[in-house]
Design goal:
The structure is a single chain. This protein is mainly α. Helices cover 59% and strands 0% of the residues. It is built from 1 helix and no strands. The protein is rod-shaped and about 150 Å long. The termini are far apart. The model has no long low-confidence stretch (mean pLDDT 78).
Length: 169
């Protein structure tokens, strides 16, 4: 590029043509930039439209998904309430049973009945008049003879031997 000296005179015509050329170059660059900006704006608009369509699809899918989980939530809540109620009723029935037996014991003691208590070292068997005597069972049939054990005679049914009680001595 030739060096321009300030001492060189520039004509008005030459200056106007240089400024016009520079202005034309700037206008073409601005138009190119405006074209690029327009394409970017159009692409952004398309992206926004696609995002809205995707949001609608996801909302529809998540609504169905949420419906499935809402029924599961209901099941969990009902199960928790049923479990709590069964625990409460179980504890209540246990307490009721204890209270009933304690009340019965108190009424027996209050009515004046006395219990025969024995020391732990001397157990005592009291026959119950309410029970009927047990029938005698027939002895089991003899085992088939085998080579290993000789046949044994079966004794007649007898009362089992009893040890004398401490109270009978």
């Amino acid at each position: 590029m030739p060096r321009i000296r300030m001492s060189d005179p520039v004509s008005r015509y030459e200056l106007n043509s240089k400024l016009a050329a520079q202005d034309a170059r700037l206008d073409s660059a601005v138009h190119q930039m405006l074209g690029i900006a327009t394409r970017i704006d159009q692409t952004c608009g398309q992206i926004r439209d696609e995002n809205k369509a995707m949001e609608k699809k996801f909302d529809a899918k998540f609504a169905a998904f949420d419906d499935k989980f809402s029924s599961m939530r209901t099941t969990i809540i009902v199960t928790a309430v049923a479990t709590a109620l069964s625990i409460i009723f179980g504890v209540g029935s246990f307490i009721g049973t204890l209270t009933s037996s304690m009340l019965a014991t108190f009424q027996v003691v209050a009515s004046g009945q006395q219990f025969a208590q024995t020391p732990l070292s001397e157990p005592r068997v009291v026959p119950s008049p309410q029970l009927a005597p047990s029938p005698q069972l027939a002895p089991p049939p003899p085992l088939a003879p085998s080579r290993q054990t000789p046949p044994q005679a079966v004794p007649p049914a007898a009362a089992p031997p009893t040890a004398p009680l401490a109270a009978d001595r």
